[in-house]
Amino acid sequence: MSRNAVAALLLLALFLTAWFALSPVTALLYLATALATAVIVLGLNIQWGYGGLFNAGVLGFVALGGYAVVLVSIPPVPEALDAGGSGLLSAAIKLGVTMVAIYALARLHAFLPNSLLRGAQILVGIAGYIWLKGELDLTIRAIETAATADPSMRGFVGGLGLPVLLGWAVGGVLAGVIAWFIGKITLGLRSDYLAIATLGIAEIIRTFLKNADWLTRGTLTVSPIDWPVPTPRDVNALLDRGGGDYSVAWLDIASEQAGTALSRIMFIAVSAAILIALVLLLERALASPWGRMMHSIRDNDTAAAAMGKDVVKRQLEVFVLGAVLMGLGGAMLTSLNTLFDPSAYLPPRYTFLIWAMLIVGGSGNNLGAVFGAIFIYLLWEMSEPISQFLFLNGAAVLQAMFEGWEPPSDLEGRASQMRVIVIGLALLVTMRFAPRGVLPERQGLRKR
Amino acid sequence: MSLLLEARGLVGGYGELTILHGCDLTVEAGRISVIVGANGAGKSTAMKAIFGLLPLREGSITFAGEDIVGRTPQELVALGMGYVPQMANVFPTLQVEENLEMGAFIAPDRVARGLERVYSIFPALQEKRRQPAGELSGGQRQMVAVGRALMMEPQLLMLDEPTAGLSPKVMRDIFDIILKVNEADVGVLMVEQNARQALEIADTGFVLGTGRNLYVDTGEALLADPEVARSFLGKRD
Amino acid sequence: MEFADTLNALVYLLNKGVLNAAKIGSIYALGAVGITLIFGILRFAHFAHGDMMTFGALSAFFGTLWLRQQGINIEPIPTGLLALPVAALVTVGLALLIDRSVYAHFRAQKSPPVVFVMTSIGVTFILQGVIRLIGGTGDRQFFFTLVENGERLREDKARLLFDFEWLSEHFDGFAQKIVITAPQLALFVFTAVALFGLHRFLTRTRLGKGMRAVSDNEDLARISGIDVGKVVLFTWIIGGTLAAIAGTLLAMDTQYKPILAFNLLLPMFAAAIMGGVGKPFGAVAGAFIVGLAETFAVFDWRVVYNFLVPDEMHAATALALVPAEYKLAVPFVILVLVLIWRPTGIFRGQVL
């Protein structure tokens, strides 16, 4: 049996365990999340597996994709736009002028020494910031105090009120555009410097999204966010009107879960279709001359540069392409959660877990990336109930053995921490004993 | 004459790539052996293999009668071997004197005597002892590198292309230094690109090609051999 | 404008601005020195360093709890400081355990730096889990009231108060004071002593010079006979000790949190890179620059400004360059600018 088949069977076994040990709807939710996450991991695979770029700022692009769904699908708040629309426009123009000025300075590299140039760029940036800040502060205050017809939307500009599927696409585009700027300034740094720089930029994006209440509602969060297919609520309402018994005994689905299950299956179908299309496209790209060139750059960028390949430009391409997928995946996740919560984008969950998925799955191999995403995500979700079960029973045993011993009151909370340990161990064990992952990249293409 | 270093049938290389195909190298106590040969002949690789920086697949190496295959560089330094690599052979941010002290890291009680000896060979270094080695000229750096290797008063000094990248004048100075070190009964094994000058001071010369010994003889004899002269020494003007 | 108001402005600035910058700068310095030593000697960005700091703080907390329960104390030294030596030992033990069980394998394989960074991310995961597993997910105070046999035993955060009475006597209207708490004082003293000691160690001892040599050129260090294993061991001992001190003193100054030091990681990287990788004293300078920049970017100049201008020109709203919510983003911006502008550091460190 091939390695791929064994891996698929392993996933199936994990999925069925979740299905019957937890509940069918929970297992479906895990799978839907895992598929959306797999899109993000594919993006990282493009950047790292194909391009050799150490991007430790995955969460920044995921969060941007998440915000794009808000921007596109949430209806606008007209009162806020009346109060601050013109101010925002003018601030955007000032931002544009500043950026053009910085870019124009870069064109002067023939006349100015490099350090002077960079210094001037930073000064122009700071001056532009102060120029922009005064107006932006006033505008934001106007938006935040504008009275709205819907009090729950107060202080928030809202979005465009367009279909959510468009939001997914915009998620990819927005992440890609921002990635282009980031790549422009960071690519060319040595691997671990690039990691530190991207980690820092992702934190800046996160801090902005979390605190720009007028744009994202910050810690107040935005919900509900729509699905491209009928949501569980829609389907449940439909089934309630029908009023029959929808239970499926052999699948362990109770009647009241049927609507949710059906809706989630539809979401999974859409996600899976996107994922399969992406994998097929990426495989074709990899087999093309472009893909072979990417490999030669990743394996030896000095030699590739010596052969006249424009290394930085190609790396910018993979960086942007990878970020597009991260944004798309982030948009899918936000949709699935029906909630945009900028505070939830934390590095362990949205950067390092993604890395663990790629490394365990097998970087450089698209199927490995998908496998790693689903496998690690299921492991991540299921290690929590398993360790809680073990901990609570273990505590009971200990209590019986040692009289007077009291388990800590937050035992359940502590047990849920086991899952980061499990993922950390999975990462370390893979790096040590199977450094190329469970489904390694096909031989002949790589030598590292 | 007893052999200080005796390496026989060395086979080894980097990973899958085999570079040494059974060459022999020897140094007599207190004498100078020189390795010459074309680029890629395995000269530096042989030096690294002897100094334990490269795993050997086959071959035997003895130093002062002791088997040293598989020994770490630390152990070899303790036994009385000193090695000066070709590139990056000083600690740039450490002061000259700190560089020298590092040569006697394993035996702190020998630092004072070692410094005295090195400064007597290279008086120029004493003036610069507080200066970071990275700020020195190429020739002075080479002195620091050789001085560092001499701190433990080795019986054998191994030099990998000590004159690479230096001007002809500095190159002559370095050869003078090597002779001076050798006068104190230190055996020398060195790799040289400037084959003619090197063979002139060599007691024994080894001409390597594709990891094998092509010619082994005294330096004088090799210089006189028309075959060697034609293939390796260039035209005599 | 009265001279007393100028004094008021100055002392206020010192108390609210410079003191805070010095505090956060000291914390960054203690962490960044460890990071830069590891960067220079082991040649990778150690992502788990922040969690080592948190782990040190947690061990110190448990030590404090135990000491308090035993009734051991030395007035007026805060109990947390008494627990510090043990916390440092435990943290060093942890660092060595991680090195032996994880990093040593990849060192023997001569793996590239990215592999080390990745494994240190794995270690971060495990440490974060372990920290919450044994310490719980909640916050903890180092100065707490212990209830024993119905008796309430308090320990308060001692503070030094400078109210400059002699100045108030001379200048009417001068009414500012400087407050330094015991943990802050300890932080300044420990930072000064630790950095001075480290300087002596690196420039005067054989092993310290050996560490600098390995940082300069590891291959040559091996060839010279330097015991690289011992150098690695001492790198972890120094890094671990400084991490434990920084974590504990930070937690004593504010409180212990499971994510105490994760947010410090990037500012510390910024400091280490700004100072030039492998240069401990560059990292110290970088740490104080980052601390100053971060503090004064969000510093509200209103009070200072109002002291200095006539009443009718007083500002009513905050006068800060950056809103306070963005305080954490300031070091990241500095970091990115440094990486782009001068990746070798302001003081020209080595390029790895």
What would your notes on this structure say?
The complex is a heterotrimer of chains A (448), B (237) and C (352). Chain A has helices at residues 3-22, 24-50, 58-73, 78-106, 114-145, 164-186, 191-211, 213-216, 232-242, 258-287, 289-299, 301-306, 311-337, 347-361, 366-401, 411-415, 418-433. Chain A is mainly α and 448 residues long. Chain A has 2 domains: 3-76 and 158-433, ABC transporter involved in vitamin B12 uptake, BtuC (Orthogonal Bundle), CATH 1.10.3470; 77-157. The relative contact order of chain A is 0.17. Residues 444-448 of chain A have low confidence and may be disordered. Chain B folds into 2 domains: 1-80 and 156-165 and 182-237, 3-Layer(aba) Sandwich (Rossmann fold); 86-153, no CATH class. Helix content of chain B is 38%, strand content 28%. In chain B, the strands form 2 sheets. In chain B, strands 6-7-8-3-9-10 form a 6-stranded mixed sheet, sandwiched between helices. In chain B, strands 2-1-4-5 form a 4-stranded antiparallel sheet, covered by helices on one side. Chain B starts with a strand and ends with a helix. The mean pLDDT of chain B is 90. Chain C has one domain: ABC transporter involved in vitamin B12 uptake, BtuC. Chain C has helices at 3-41, 49-70, 79-108, 113-135, 165-170, 182-204, 206-216, 218-223, 228-253, 265-274, 280-297, 302-308, 329-341; strands spanning 146-148, 151-153, 159-162, 178-181. The longest helix of chain C is centred in the first third of the chain and has 39 residues, at 3-41. The radius of gyration of chain C is 22 Å and the shape is globular. Chain C starts with a helix and ends in an 11-residue tail after the last helix. Chains in contact: A-C, B-C. At the A-C interface, helix 5, helix 7, helix 14 and helix 17 of A face helix 3, helix 4, helix 10 and helix 13 of C.
